[in-house]
Design a protein that fits this description.
Elements lengths: L1 H30 L20 E6 L6 H17 L3 E4 L9 H14 L9 E5 L3 E3 L20 E6 L2 E10 L2 H16 L9 H11 L14 E3 L2 H4 L16 E3 L7 H14 L13 H27 L6 H23 L4 H12 L4
Parallel strand pairs: 1-2, 1-3, 5-7
Antiparallel strand pairs: 3-6, 4-8, 5-6
């Protein structure tokens, strides 16, 4: 019993050491917010060779299927000129390797001159396979004018899924990752379940306090339709269609290997079988419409808030209108931050708020 406890303590010590160091960073960030007390350099980079670098990890016992899956991502990265980073050593404990590695890469990019940085990291789990290499990852990150979006992710029936996601090279991302890593240290009695890093990040993103401005992180998060970038293979079938970017195998447990082997054979032996030119897919039209909708929603909310502020001597009628506008703004903001992937809902709430422009 004592020996078991000692082994368990040794296993936890690296994580506690890392989290202790990160907690100090977190305190520094909270005491000296990067957007106010510190004079951060402009993190809107000058045009660089590529906006995106792809990131994954694979270490420990050799796994040929994971290696082949990552080779599909490497081919995709080479095709589009993206740098590819793969963590090959255990730098933390289990699930915490992912956020630890991402944090190191974000800091490393911010340490470069603006013109030398990539703007976004695309994280891909090793159990995902590129099916259609003709689709560039750039489609799924926000246009450069949407500067307040720092995390592009997807969700499923369990909530946030971090298997495929885009992280902005920005101090916001450092804050979010530090708080995610520190979460189990500050709240050791909370149960995070099996995917501890994912659940920790989800809880940090759902907070209404903390973050760079003390209002949480939800303003910097946008969910895109999951099947665009994180299409699942179920035990019975693939949920996507020919032309989709990739296939991901979460939750299949031991069934994963046969499914991965099947798809790897397809993309390696008959690579054009699932490849469809970009212009023949739905991606270009749908992503353009999506980001246009997000931009319009943000602009409309800002416009209506200015309209409210411009009513100094409010009559009873104006107060009623202000209340309706305020409710509509909050409803649209909630949809945009929590369910932007539900494009019908966002458009419906945007249309309703737009009626008050007149």
């Amino acid at each position: 019993m004592i020996a078991h406890a000692m082994r368990q303590a040794r296993h936890c010590r690296p994580l506690l050491t890392i989290l202790a160091a990160l907690s100090v960073l977190c305190l520094i960030w909270l005491i000296y917010p990067p957007y106010s007390s510190f004079s951060w350099p402009d993190v809107s980079p000058e045009p660089s060779p590529q906006r995106i670098a792809k990131v994954s990890m694979l270490y420990g016992r050799p796994n040929r299927l994971y290696e082949r899956a990552l080779q599909s991502h490497t081919r995709h990265a080479q095709r589009w000129g993206y740098p590819m980073h793969i963590l090959r050593e255990d730098i933390s404990v289990g699930f915490w390797n992912k956020p630890s590695y991402l944090l190191s890469l974000v800091i490393g990019e911010l340490a470069k001159p603006p013109g030398k940085r990539v703007e976004w990291l695309m994280w891909v789990d090793a159990d995902s396979i590129i099916l259609n290499g003709a689709i560039p990852a750039d489609l799924f990150i926000p246009p450069s004018d949407l500067k307040d979006i720092h995390l592009v992710a997807t969700k499923d029936h369990n909530g946030l899924n971090t298997g495929i996601m885009f992280l902005h090279i920005h101090p916001w991302t450092i804050n979010m990752l530090v708080e995610s890593l520190a979460y189990p240290l500050y709240l050791p009695n909370e149960t995070l379940g099996r995917s501890m890093d994912q659940e920790s990040m989800a809880r940090v993103l759902n907070q209404t306090t903390g973050g760079p401005k003390g209002e949480g992180y939800v303003d910097g998060l946008v969910y895109v339709p999951r099947t665009w970038i994180n299409t699942y293979e179920w035990t019975h079938a693939y949920e996507g269609k020919r032309g989709n970017l990739l296939v991901h195998f979460p939750g299949l447990e031991e069934h994963r290997w046969s499914h991965m082997s099947k798809w790897l054979d397809i993309v390696e032996i008959t690579p054009t079988r699932w490849e469809v030119p970009l212009e023949e897919t739905q991606y270009l039209n749908e992503t353009t419409a999506f980001w246009t909708r997000v931009r319009t929603a943000m602009e409309t909310m800002a416009l209506m808030e200015k309209k409210i502020d411009a009513m100094p001597n409010k009559t009873d009628s104006q107060r009623g209108e202000i209340e309706r506008i305020d409710v509509a703004v909050r409803a649209l903001r909630k949809a945009l931050h929590e369910e932007a992937d539900n494009v019908g809902m966002v458009q419906e709430r945007l249309d309703y708020l737009s009626m008050f422009k007149q």
